[in-house]
Amino acid sequence: MLRTPSAIAGTVLVGLMVVLAVIGPPIWGDQADLIDAGAILQGSSAAHPLGTDNLGRDLLARVLVAGRFSLLLALAAALIGAVAGVVLGALPSVLPTRLARLVTGAVNALVAFPGLLLAMFTAVVAGLGARGAVLGIGVAIAPGFARLTQTLAASVAGADYVSAARMLGVPRRRILVRHVLPNIAEPLILNLTQALGGALLGLAGMSFLGLGVQPPSYDWGRLLFDGFGRIYVTPVVAIGPAVAVALAGIGFNLLGDTLARRAARTTVPGKKATTSVAADTDKPDEGAVLEVKDLTVTFPGGVTPVRQLSLSVRPGEIVGVVGESGSGKSLTAAAIGGLVPYPGTVGYGRLRLCGKDVTELSRKELGTSLAMVFQDPMASLNPALKVGGQLAEVAVVHQGATRAEARGRAVDRLGHVHLPEPDKQAKKHPHELSGGMRQRAVIAMGLMGTPRLIIADEPTTALDVTVQRQILRLLREVTEETGSAALFISHDIAVVGELCDRVVVMYAGRVVEELPVDRLATGAAHPYTRALITSLPDMDTDRTLPLASIPGRQPGPAEVGDGCAFAPRCALATDRCSTERPLLSVYGDAHQVACWEAK
Amino acid sequence: MAATILSGPTSRPVLRRLVRFAVSLVVLVLASFAMIHLIPGDPVRASLGPAAPIELVEARTAALGLDQPILTQLTTYVSGLLSGDMGTSFLTGEPVSEVIAARLPNTLALALLATVIALLAAIPLGMWAAVRTENGRHRGTEAAFGTATGTVVAVPEFLYAIALVTVFAITLRAFPPAGKDGLESYVLPVLALAIGPIGMIARIARVETLRVLGTDYVRLARAKRLPAGRLYLRHVLPNTLTATLTLGGLLLSSLIAGSVLVEYVFAWPGLGLKIVEAITQKDYPVAQGVILVYGAIVLLVNLLVDVVLSLSDPTSAIKES
């Protein structure tokens, strides 16, 4: 809890305030009330560092003594506000529906009102003085607390224990007192710290306006009121109370912030991992659209979700990357697109796009020759911009098209992906399109440039089955028409088998098999690939038997040992498999596999 | 315009907000009417002081209509409000509506300027902090930003006002210390009002920007290799504005009534200074009128924020349903 400087500062300041409130009056009390007719209205001096007031009393001592009264008044106001707020907030859950709605409505209306306005209203009614000010600030704090209580109570109202109590016929008042309030007490108490800070500043403000504490009593606000009247002559007299109020406000705010955030705090990884770039020995493949060699993605703490991955894609080819969740396939796609989230680091022996190393490619080349399609089409379109505008952007930014040209091209591309009435769709916002139409629009966005490679990361997963088919057909069509290649990432081996020319199977961050699609059904060599295929139900599957599945689970990126990662789940595994990792080696024509038992 | 609003797809939420506004306004009028009657004892006596002769108190009570049955008083009050009559000041005998009309523009000018300046300073600051601290980079910046904004927010505006007066008006004599006299007299009060909100809005802007930076559409926009300026201004900024501008609207309404302390420090001839005078001198009709006007403005600004948001945000139609 005390890990951040602001938390430390807040705790120290609030601690000092509390100590001051306890020891202030007994130590400096006499000095603060000592009237010295010979030293009235003085400025700073050795005897009175902050000067004296109109009766010659020492202002430093008065500031130190006033801490207790200021804090006590703030505490009273905060408690009044909290109690009134909790009652107001809890009432709707015991009142009849109509009354409950009335109370909720009233609270919502009051929350929107500035606190100072409520405080002044109350102060007018209750009269000038500390009592009116405390009541006023309490009233100002109450609506916020009521809203918080309502929100929290609503969040536990659906809990099983509350439903159970309700079913047992426990009266509503009892449910509230015994089940709901105890469970929301902690956040309410945490919120009290901030309310206390707010009350202290509010009361200081009221006293500063002359509407709060009246002489002979004094709090910091009142001392500031007195000092402000003399600010033109001796500005130093305002410093003491001003600094006290500022420090108290800062302390309570920083501590309150920390307390409120305590529950939500999550751990974060500490240090960056080092990047290891393997030696680049052999010749690059000039003809490939994409060539990846020894790609590794590392996260801090030695977690390596993608390990020494190599693959290449030739022009016009559709390559499927298939694997379970967590096999590293999406990160592979992100690494190729240069979109790995921080703090991940990407290392590679070679990463070439369109015959050039990615570091040599300009933004323009990357922006026009590489298209990406993500899983959720709603999330990948900007909700604030019209569809046509988002498409046109690539042409404007990278190809120097005028707005009109770019718009025309956007409409043309939307027609290309079979959106009905493309000129109308271009003028719509993303939320006005269906999921399938949005995914078409995202694909059309990729077509705005001259894509050489389309990376599609689970593009159909969020769509329903009939729309899936259309999108797959569209991807196929688009690659055939434009000559673009595609890297198609999916967990669904059936879809991959249908769409792709070549399949790359990933397991625990590594490629375990790479084969032409026509060999997938019968010629797969790796036990994992075969298991994936047998787990697919077809028309002949005996539906009285449970669906075939692979026993065990994929190891996490931090759990991979020396041997073959699949060995613990593999029926063919030998001792060698668990100690020595098989390398990807040629198995047949355009077919590679990493398995000791594949012969 | 009104017809198209009400017949469009957004008509229902807009209508509901109008109804809510009307109900709140009625409650506000009732509350301001009740204020004088909630004061314990005789407000006229309290205002004139114990030494005032009985005849004067009775005459004043009759003039205010406080001797009438309460329902008659309410109808008189409401019909007076409808014709712009808010009573007369106990102290000066001026009509309250004239006092308010003379002072309201000064208060509005302060609040509006402070809001604009706070937004212009805070949004770029928050976005910069978000981009710099995205994904946990630059933890130092993050800590400094959090502590600085937390500190700035925690200091009340009247302390900024006093500090600004002391430094820039009294010591450096660069700006006038009080009153409204020419453009330079706006500088210090507007600054005093804007400093705290800058910290608050910068925080919200940072959080909102971080949320938007994490979305797929920004990932896609990054995949398109847009230049940084275009990425942040066109793809990120508009999506952070809903939350930030809502806050700006609420800020405006809170500054209108919240400028009381700053007006007091700078002796600014606005509503805030007037209400402090009215409360200390027990000039109840003025206090009542100013509170009513403050409340109505707050309601109106909040209504405008709601309506503008529901008309401008393309996704709010979905959120409503």
TrEMBL record, chain A:
It comes from Nonomuraea glycinis. The chain crosses the membrane at residues 7-28, 69-91, 103-128, 148-168, 188-211, 231-255. Its main location: membrane. It comes from the Bacteria. GO terms for biological process: peptide transport; transmembrane transport. InterPro entries: AAA+_ATPase, ABC_Ni/Peptide_Import, ABC_transporter-like_ATP-bd, ABC_transporter-like_CS, MetI-like, MetI-like_sf, Oligopep_ABC_C, P-loop_NTPase. GO terms for cellular component: plasma membrane. Residues 290-533 form the ABC transporter domain. This is Peptide ABC transporter ATP-binding protein. CDD domains: ABC_NikE_OppD_transporters, TM_PBP2. Belongs to the binding-protein-dependent transport system permease family. It is a multi-pass membrane protein; Peripheral membrane protein. The keyword Oxidoreductase does not apply.
From TrEMBL, chain B:
It is found in: Cell membrane. Keywords: Cell membrane, Membrane, Transmembrane, Transmembrane helix, Transport. Belongs to the binding-protein-dependent transport system permease family. The chain crosses the membrane at residues 21-39, 108-131, 143-174, 186-205, 240-266, 286-309. Residues 104-309 form the ABC transmembrane type-1 domain. The keyword Protein biosynthesis does not apply. One of its GO terms (cellular component) is plasma membrane. Signal peptide: none annotated. GO terms for biological process: transmembrane transport. PROSITE patterns: ABC_TM1. It comes from Nonomuraea glycinis. This is Peptide ABC transporter permease. It is a multi-pass membrane protein.
